[in-house]
Amino acid sequence: MQLPLPAHIREEEVIKAIDPTKDVDGFHPVNLGKLVQGQPGFVPATPYGIMLLLEHYQIDTAGKHAVVIGRSNIVGRPMSILLSGNSQPGNCTVTLCHSKTKNLESHCKQADIIIAALGKPAFLQASMVKEGAIVVDVGITRVIDQSKKSGFRLLGDVDFETVAPHCSWITPVPGGVGPMTIAALLKNTFQACNQRH
User: Fold this and answer.
1) Which one, out of 19, 67, 146, 166, has a CA that is 20 to 30 A from the CA of 101?
2) What residues in the chain have per-residue pLDDT under 70?
3) Phi first, then psi: what are they for 185, rounded to 5°?
4) How many angstroms separate the CA atoms of 171 and 53, rounded?
């Protein structure tokens, strides 16, 4: 199954119909419950990919304040759980922000790590980021651009050009979290195959 589904199809019912042992996207309530309880299961691919990225670059997250912008079940909530877990990467103090968060800029300015996953192009501006922050841009929005062969360009949730000079680490769009999501999905698929054989 590929999300998003057409509006007339109940997403929750389709997700529940998937065998949790084959749920390589990590969306089934069984796998999300295991994630919350710190039990082995399939982790949603995008947050898993971000954790793999942090691990690969040996970014020490312990004791850091992480702000996750976005509370979806696909990225925001699982990401907040993974970052707060007793692991490396992990052991963060996590603030989960969303559209109703008051003083969002203030929360972001305090963050050592920002995960931007809200789906609004160039939302995170330089004025919202403290010096040396780690910024992970999960957003990907197609914006019309007639100068491109495709007719569009891809923008993330972070205003990369203005934010990057203030960061110790930052992911680009495209080419950052996207490929890591695919890698994590393949790791989950390989794990599912091993468990069945």
Assistant:
1) 166
2) none
3) -60, -40
4) 10
